[in-house]
């Protein structure tokens, strides 16, 4: 077959996104990405999965970011840089533009905090900033066992995060914050005029602001209701 040497987009993209790729190979792969749809798709998914798509400054992995900065500062210098360096800078800049474009298309572009919460719920992963400020609410009567209760940062929005699991192993996340959660894209206002609900990436979200700012997320819609009901009625979150 002409034009494409055999390679493994999934494996190489994983190494690239995780930063395991060595500098030299990374440089080659940067160039390869511009022309290879398969690798590009894998890398985009990788970034999206890691939640790096939230802020454009984070779209490029650290190594590449440094290289861009270096390349651009070289290119910006008045004309003493050899021509191939300038071409290199253009190639790198092109990769970045493609990255931003693909993220804009692939990502459903939720507000950062919503995107971060969805990612946490989908991957069942929380980056803890310490213990939660509220004591974890007891949902054992609903058949939900507490798995984690942590203080987290949702793209700049400080929040408590509680993860519960039911007997079938399905999880539901409750986020509680002193600040209002941004409204998810394509959300619907609740019939009672309190908060909104949305579906995003296969997850169900409900959000409200009484008696506290809360956001409940689960892949299983039937787990969302009991948690929201507890928030509203148990008195746990009344100041
Ligand atoms: Zn490829």
Description:
The chain has 239 residues and is an alpha+beta fold. The protein folds into two domains: 9-106, no CATH class; 112-233, Phosphorylase Kinase, domain 1 (2-Layer Sandwich). Helix content is 42%, strand content 19%. It is built from seven helices and seven strands; from the N terminus they run H-H-H-H-H-H-E-E-E-E-E-E-E-H. The protein has a seven-stranded antiparallel β-sheet with strand order 1-2-3-7-6-5-4, with helices on both faces. Strand 1 and strand 2 form a beta hairpin. It is elongated, with a radius of gyration of 22 Å. The N and C termini lie far apart (68 Å). Residues 52-59 and 72-86 have low confidence and may be disordered. The structure holds zinc ion. The site of zinc ion (ZN) has 6 residues, from helix 3. Residues 7, 9, 32, 36, 38-39 line the site of zinc ion.
